[in-house]
């Protein structure tokens, strides 16, 4: 099967996704700007309801009613703006050019068909000429993830454990040689050893196939293990973005610091871990003005109640916060042609 030698860049600009509610249309993602550099793995972390999965679905133009993409673009090298794709062109993009692993992998499997039959259906729907090669590639991917590929392809979903179904979902996202891969909680329902195996496979296949990868996760440890860059989301906004080691090693945004402080340690003083105060906002409780994090922030200013912070470059990363930080300068986006 053909391998792409050049990874694509992805540029998300001004992305806003709204959901129709009894109170009107409310934003789940609001004005997000995010660049995925070619050949990198970008992790996205944040609490439930922060907009991570909605952002990921937008990369396939797959937001379903009552939601819709109301503004912005998702430009992928070689594809153009995915938000503008429609009909057959959009269908062929999903899976073949942009692979996706859903958070609940079992929901994307047909319980009446074997995994192998679903693989062949996938190949035929995307006009794969050599179905035998497709099956060989699937067996190899499953084998590298610690499973008997032939046995799995002959199985139905109820014959597989939750962890095995999750790995089957990863195989489906990779087997058509997609250029961009989005993984929504790829290590959910897996034990620690299997998690480590999956993260290693994601990294290896990412490098071998020249992918650009987005990993959605609650697990900051998983991000530290596999990602190059890290985006932190809260209330539908990206509040901090930069190289993963720098963001985790010296977080600039109060929310990022709170997330890291809440991680329990395996050694040392367990009392050092502190949960974030309060609860994350819902669509109905997002403030109409000001900083979305202000009610839970220990360092909020009067300005935070009236003005939404504009993302600025600070020490090699982008931070959206009114608090002064080192070397704060206006953002200069790096574009990828």
Automatic annotation (TrEMBL):
<keyword id="KW-0813">Transport</keyword>
<dbReference type="GO" id="GO:0016887">
    <property type="term" value="F:ATP hydrolysis activity"/>
</dbReference>
<dbReference type="Pfam" id="PF00005">
    <property type="entry name" value="ABC_tran"/>
</dbReference>
<keyword id="KW-0067">ATP-binding</keyword>
<dbReference type="GO" id="GO:0015833">
    <property type="term" value="P:peptide transport"/>
</dbReference>
<dbReference type="InterPro" id="IPR050388">
    <property type="entry name" value="ABC_Ni/Peptide_Import"/>
</dbReference>
<dbReference type="InterPro" id="IPR003593">
    <property type="entry name" value="AAA+_ATPase"/>
</dbReference>
<feature type="domain" description="ABC transporter">
    <location>
        <begin position="10"/>
        <end position="260"/>
    </location>
</feature>
<dbReference type="GO" id="GO:0005524">
    <property type="term" value="F:ATP binding"/>
</dbReference>
<keyword id="KW-0472">Membrane</keyword>
<dbReference type="GO" id="GO:0005886">
    <property type="term" value="C:plasma membrane"/>
</dbReference>
<keyword id="KW-0547">Nucleotide-binding</keyword>
<keyword id="KW-1003">Cell membrane</keyword>
<dbReference type="InterPro" id="IPR027417">
    <property type="entry name" value="P-loop_NTPase"/>
</dbReference>
<dbReference type="InterPro" id="IPR003439">
    <property type="entry name" value="ABC_transporter-like_ATP-bd"/>
</dbReference>
<protein>
    <submittedName>
        <fullName>Oligopeptide/dipeptide ABC transporter ATP-binding protein</fullName>
    </submittedName>
</protein>
<comment type="similarity">
    <text>Belongs to the ABC transporter superfamily.</text>
</comment>
<dbReference type="Pfam" id="PF08352">
    <property type="entry name" value="oligo_HPY"/>
</dbReference>
<dbReference type="InterPro" id="IPR013563">
    <property type="entry name" value="Oligopep_ABC_C"/>
</dbReference>
């Amino acid at each position: 099967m053909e391998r792409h030698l050049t990874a694509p860049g992805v540029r998300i600009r001004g992305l806003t996704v709204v959901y129709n509610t009894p109170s009107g249309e409310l934003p789940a993602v609001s004005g997000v700007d995010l660049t995925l550099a070619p050949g990198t793995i970008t992790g996205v972390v944040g609490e439930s309801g922060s907009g991570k999965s909605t952002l990921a679905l937008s990369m396939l133009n797959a937001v379903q009613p009552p939601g819709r993409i109301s503004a912005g673009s998702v430009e992928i090298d070689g594809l153009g703006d995915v938000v503008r794709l429609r009909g057959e062109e959009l269908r062929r993009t999903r899976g073949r050019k942009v692979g996706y692993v859903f958070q609940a992998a079992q929901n994307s499997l047909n319980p009446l068909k074997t995994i192998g039959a679903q693989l062949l259906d996938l190949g035929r729907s995307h006009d794969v000429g050599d179905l035998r090669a497709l099956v060989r590639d699937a067996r190899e991917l499953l084998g590298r993830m610690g499973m008997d590929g032939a046995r799995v392809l002959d199985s139905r979903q109820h014959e597989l454990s939750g962890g095995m179904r999750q790995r089957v979902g990863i195989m489906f996202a990779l087997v058509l040689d997609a250029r961009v891969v989005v993984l929504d909680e790829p290590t959910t329902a897996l034990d620690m050893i299997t998690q480590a195996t999956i993260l290693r496979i994601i990294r290896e296949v990412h490098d071998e196939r020249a992918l650009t990868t987005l990993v959605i996760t609650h697990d900051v440890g998983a991000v530290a293990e596999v990602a190059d860059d890290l985006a932190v989301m809260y209330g539908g906004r990206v509040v901090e973005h930069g190289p993963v080691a720098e963001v985790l090693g010296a977080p600039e945004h109060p929310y990022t610091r709170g997330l890291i402080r809440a991680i329990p340690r395996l050694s040392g003083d367990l009392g050092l871990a502190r949960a974030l105060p309060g609860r994350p906002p819902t669509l109905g409780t997002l403030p109409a003005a000001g900083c979305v994090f202000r009610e839970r922030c220990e360092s909020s200013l009067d300005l935070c109640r009236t003005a939404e912070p504009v993302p600025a470059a600070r020490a090699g990363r982008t931070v959206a916060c009114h608090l002064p930080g080192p070397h704060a300068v206006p953002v200069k986006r790096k574009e990828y042609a």
